Amino acid sequence: MERIIWRRQALNLVVMVLASAATLFGLVWLVWLLWTTVTEGMAALSPKLLTQMTPPPGAEGGLANAFVGSLLIVTLGTLIGTPIGILAGTYLAEFGKRSKVAETIRFVNDILLSAPSIVIGLFVYELAVRTVGHFSGYAGGLALALILLPVVVRTTDESLRLVPATLREAALSLGLPMWKVVLNIVYRAGATGIATGVLLAVARISGETAPLLFTALNNQFWSTDMGTPMANVPVVIFQYAMSPYDSWHALAWAGALIVTAFVLGLSIVVRVLLRPRTYR
Amino acid sequence: MSTGDRAFRWLTAVAAWAVLITLLAAALSMAWGGRLAFRTFGWKFITSPNWDAVGHNFGAAIPIYGTLVSSALAMLVAIPTSLGIAIFLSEVAPRWLRGPVGMAIELLAAIPSIIYGMWGLFVFAPFMANHVEPWLNDKLGPLPGIGPLFSGPPIGIGMLTAGIVLGIMTIPFISSVMRDVFQAVPPALRESAFALGATPWEVTRKVTLPYTSSAVLGAIFLGLGRALGETMAVTFVLGNAHDFSGSLLMPGNSIAAAIANEFTEADSPIYLSSLIALGFLLFVVTFIVLAIAKFMLMRIERSFG
């Protein structure tokens, strides 16, 4: 009897130690990745990053055009994706509810959420690059909008469904039409959740590379014309990291550090400040 | 219903349908873009290992093989680690530690994949080449059966490195779903097992896992779907080779990496069409895997309410 209990507890101890080791194993990679990015990136940081253009092979330069390009493309993606996403999420939560159509759209949306981003890039290439005949910042924005869209749809749907039905009923009983109830009451109650979703989605598209490879492409020069190929930080990082030049590697690390700091900073701030305490 | 209500409902419905149409349009446009390759090569496009950009002869067997093998390796890394993390978060960690650790693991998912790729190329591949692969060469290389998998020069760039990087990337996706479904187990079930004197491991194995088994499988398929389509992290460390190699230490290719590397270089209609056809295959495969994941997760999602 004693021995059985001892054996069961020993087994339990072994498994729990292994589980803790697995967690440590996961955290080691996080620390290692961040450590590399911070040390390599800090060494390459300089004010030139913001004032000079991406250089030709072997030369010195900065990332100014890439930062501006990224800013414009991400902004465009957010501006296209957010309203459509919020409206679609509103349909699912307020009108579709548990109907077959709504469940199908939820299903498809969840698949789109995890679909390979390179495939989205190919799709937008077919849609907005091949038909026009050249790469453009608009195509890049559209590709990022399609990555952002499912995130916003899902978080809007989820946060609106958390709004108590009694709130809607109280407003409706005062004679408000449904659309005013949604705009003035339901959106206000679900605003935190929707904002969380949008900001996390912005963080996600800020680092996306694959969908921009065949849409915005790249541009060595300063350009704010979104109708033409456009420099952006992720694609510049990709090209420079794959090159054999040390000066390009340094620029790639600097870009990597800034993108990572922005994306992780935004994710952490959003989670800590906006999210209701879901972590137990 | 007032006019305003009708207009509002109509507007939101159009937006919702846009989601559905996006997925359909993506599938159709890639099938359309790849039609030249499918028509020219037929089934050979999937079975032939011959990828010849000069002779305009394209077969995708090597990238397909690479995608499957690197994803399988990724699952070998990610499944046990994620299960361990989920058990740690639900059974071992004190309450105050769960939030921070859970969030730190989720941050792994927030790091852009291109950062994984760069780190993989400049830091992890040399580490593998200098410390891990020579050891594998020595210890596992001479063994019969699995030996050939671990032979070849330790250059760091290859299937094994790509699989491990991919595994690290998928850990947060699998572990966060597992943690969530573990928490959805009714406390009364777990507590009654504890009351009978079960150890935490016994509660996990005999109550939590059976109760959540389909969702745990769903989480794994979700991670697999991510691994199959991941592009940037793999492109850096896979080596873009179009020759078949039985060794995990040798460079290879994957569907996503081939598209990323070669798309802007594709100089003939058949080359471009072949790459888009690859994209279509990837889309179909990930769709199936993600749909399975979704079905398996549905039951537990219902109980969330």
Q: What would your notes on this structure say?
A:
The complex is a heterodimer of chains A (280) and B (305). Chain A is mainly α. Chain A has two domains: 2-44; 50-274, MetI-like (MetI-like fold). Helix content of chain A is 76%, strand content 0%. In chain A, helix 3 packs antiparallel against helix 8, helix 5 packs across helix 6 and helix 10 packs antiparallel against helix 11. Chain B is mainly α and 305 residues long. Helices cover 76% and strands 1% of the residues of chain B. Chain B has helices at 3-33, 35-41, 44-47, 61-92, 95-110, 113-139, 159-183, 187-195, 200-229, 232-238, 255-262, 269-304, and strands at 51-52, 57-58. Chains A and B meet through helix 1, helix 3, helix 4, helix 5 and helix 6 of A and helix 1, helix 4, helix 5, helix 6 and helix 7 of B.
Classify the beta-strand content of chain A into a percent band. Answer: under 5%
Computed CA radius of gyration of chain A, to the nearest angstrom: 23 Å
Give a quick account of the main beta sheet of chain A: strands, pairing sense, barrel closure. Answer: none
The SS-based structural class of chain B is mainly alpha
CATH architecture of the largest domain in chain A: Orthogonal Bundle
Q: Which spans of chain B have pLDDT < 50 for at least 5 consecutive residues?
A: none
- CATH homologous superfamily classification of chain B: MetI-like
The amount of helix of chain B comes to: over 70%
Greatest interface and its residue counts?
A-B, 94 and 94 residues
Rg result of chain B: 23 Å
Number of helices of chain A: 11
Assigned CATH architecture of chain B: Orthogonal Bundle
**Oligomer class:** heterodimer
CATH class of the largest domain in chain A: Mainly Alpha
Shape descriptor of chain B: flat
How far apart lie the N and C ends of chain A?
A: 37 Å
CATH class placement of chain B: Mainly Alpha
- As residue ranges, the low-confidence spans of chain A are none
Give me the secondary-structure category of chain A: mainly alpha
Any idea what the CATH superfamily of the largest domain in chain A is called? MetI-like
